[in-house]
Design goal:
The chain is mostly helical. It has helices at 8-29, 40-52, 55-67, 74-78, 81-100, 108-116, 125-145, 150-164, 167-170, 178-182, 202-215, 222-244, 260-274, 283-294, 296-317, 328-367, 375-379, 394-398, 400-412. The two termini are 22 Å apart.
Length: 416
């Protein structure tokens, strides 16, 4: 592969998404959700969490950006093999950690059922979702690629946003009590304005947004995209704090993955990250970014191990939850680095297993020698058909540049 011409901005996007995942887990594991929403530190932590919630949506938009030209074929479905392989290895790593470090009693059958139920690796819900998305992609692409204009594709995106995200901001109010507007934590009984039955389809919303930016990049300067993102973080962070004021943090539809604020923030941040000019990056740096990007899926899955190790120690040594914020610059990078390092090891194991399987398959194929033709057939000259086409597949010679682009996308599109 031509590393020099590789678009490393997409590698940076995937790495940034993983860092955001681990940052969101900082609040999941440090007791944030069990602390009343009062004080400046809680306000700051709420704003930080708001900004980092773009993590999973970034992965989904990257999937749409890279895979929107994929079509139905056996080769396409083989692309899920590595994802499943890394998932199995990560599940094995998490199971071994639970058995030998946590002392959990896990029998072989219980572990296998946990793998099938996406529970052995605690953060593997994403794999369950991604498998479904992967199976749908060739058919979803038929819809996308047969829309003949930018206006039609924009109409599809607006439709999905209205179905999956807009209800998260319209169906969250109580119009029967003035006191509720002063303290929204008083009641969770809201009036529904828009239908919200389709909100679970939000992965397709992000997929189409990624596909859209691949074809129609935003005509904004980089600093403008970043300014819009941080502006949204401040506004939506304040809104989240207001909605939880006096009570515990309300993790509900408007600040979940499919919430409209997350859609807006992710759209501008992804546009910024995917447009970073990496043309002048040295080859060694591009290789490093490519390797780290390749390890992000495993890093996501095994980060549970280091979350469990580090936060148990942090929470024991720092009893006041709000004071744990000061440890963010140490804990999150530590989990990030350790997760990627372990994932790198798992990827090496996977490559070894894949190479061994390829070797075994090659030897089996060599044994299947075709039967020897009769002597009279060997002595007779083969007829020459001057009208016969060349044995070279026309698809291999018609568009070499497109084929190279596909190879590049295939190497990048490992996660959703």
């Amino acid at each position: 592969m031509d590393i020099q011409n590789r678009n490393s901005a997409l590698d940076i996007t995937r790495i940034a998404a993983l860092f955001c995942v681990i940052s969101v887990h900082f609040f999941l594991n440090n007791g944030f959700y069990y602390e009343p929403m009062i004080g400046r530190r809680m306000y700051l932590m709420t704003t930080m969490r708001t900004g980092f919630m773009v993590c999973v949506p970034l992965f989904l938009m990257l999937t749409g950006y890279l895979m929107n030209k994929k079509s139905l074929s056996v080769k396409y479905y083989r692309g899920i093999i590595k994802t499943l392989g890394i998932y199995l290895l990560a599940s094995a790593a998490c199971a071994l950690y639970k058995i030998f470090v946590l002392g959990t009693e896990l029998s072989l059958d219980l572990t296998l059922w946990g793998v099938l139920g996406y529970k052995t690796a605690n953060y593997s819900w994403y794999i369950e979702m991604y498998i479904g998305l992967f199976l749908l992609i060739p058919f979803v692409n038929l819809i996308w690629n047969n829309l003949g204009s930018q206006k039609a594709k924009l109409a599809l995106i607006v439709t999905f946003v209205c179905l999956t995200s807009l209800p998260t901001m319209t169906n969250i109010y109580n119009f029967e009590s003035l006191e509720w507007w002063k303290t929204p934590t008083l009641s969770t009984e809201y009036r529904q304005i828009l239908p919200d039955w389709w909100v679970r389809l939000y992965p397709l919303t992000y997929y189409f947004l990624g596909a859209y930016l691949r074809e129609f990049p935003l005509k904004l300067k980089q600093w403008q995209k970043l300014a819009i993102y941080f502006g949204c973080v401040i506004v939506f962070g304040a809104f989240n704090f207001y909605r939880s004021w006096g009570g515990f943090f309300a993790w509900v539809v408007y600040n979940d993955w499919h919430g409209l604020p997350n859609v807006i923030m992710t759209f501008f941040l992804f546009s910024f990250l995917s447009s970073i000019d990496t043309g002048r990056y040295p080859v060694w740096l591009k290789r490093v970014l490519m390797a780290l990007s390749d390890w992000c899926l495993g890093g996501y899955l095994v980060s549970y191990i280091f979350d469990n190790l580090f936060y148990a120690e942090l929470n024991a040594r720092v009893p006041i939850m709000t004071h744990r914020l000061e440890w963010y610059p140490l804990i999150v990078p530590a989990v990030f680095v350790c997760s990627l390092a372990l994932s790198g090891g798992l990827n090496c194991i996977y490559k070894g297993i894949a190479a061994l399987c390829s070797l075994v398959y090659g030897r089996i194929a060599k044994r299947e020698v075709p039967p020897t033709a009769p002597a009279e057939e060997l002595s007779a000259p083969a007829p020459i058909d001057t009208a016969a086409p060349s044995p070279v597949d026309a698809s291999q010679t018609a568009a070499p540049d497109k084929e190279q682009d596909k190879k590049t996308d295939d190497e990048l599109a490992k996660m959703g």
